[in-house]
Amino acid sequence: MRPSLRLLLILCGASVLMVACETAPVTGRSQIMLVSENEERQMGLQAYQQVLAKEPLSHDAQANALVEKVGKRIAAAAERPPAEMWRAPHFRWEFKTIDKNEPNAFCLPGGKVAVYTGLLPITRNEAGLAVVIGHEVAHALARHGAERMSDQMVASVGTAAAAALATTVSGRNRTYLPAMMAAVGAGATVGFILPMSRAQESEADRIGLVLMAMAGYDPHEAIGLWERMRAANVGRKGQAEWLSTHPADTTRISNIRGWVNEAMKYYRPRD
Description:
By secondary structure, this protein is mainly alpha-helical. It has helices at 3-18, 37-54, 61-78, 120-123, 126-141, 144-166, 177-214, 221-233, 249-264; strands spanning 20-23, 30-33, 94-98, 105-108, 112-116. The termini are far apart.
């Protein structure tokens, strides 16, 4: 190996080891963070404004009040972490209801939350909605958006290093370079990016259970919510779990059953 390439690989490895690391709430998982909180929040606010400019907001006073009520309770729980389990985020929380028949919701960095009206028949009640909002708030609390961007950066560095190594290939083997680089890219996606996305989704489920429990909602409601989600997805074509950004519904339900007792430690019923 040429000295310059050896140096490049050493620098790539060192850069990964020297990046800022954080610890995810509840799970204690180590995270690579190459994006600052300020950058993350600015991007989140910009994306939120773009969504609200395009999507129709709900004029249903009852639906809006429900999303606002549940959202504020979950947000209050996020701002009061138990026993230093996480650092209070002090977000500028906003809760919007989008009038669209899609079973969807999101929370962007900085605490910008939106729930689509198509999700409400599946959530059915406050506790069911708390499962969803708790999950979405957990993504923001754990800085999953910034972590995804950081993971992409790390993957790009690895791909660049592989490309540099490929320049050493000589003779007939150069014919196979395009296929080799395509394989490297696919390997990074299937072997790193997608598994990390599924891990973040599972982590948001687990953190969300704690948040809803702290907000006074019974975490057991999450099992029923995801069983209804699975029923709603019957007949829809989906990718195999290993090619998906999300765990399969059956996987989520099984995991949640295992995490409910942990969340129940924080449950205090409220009127």
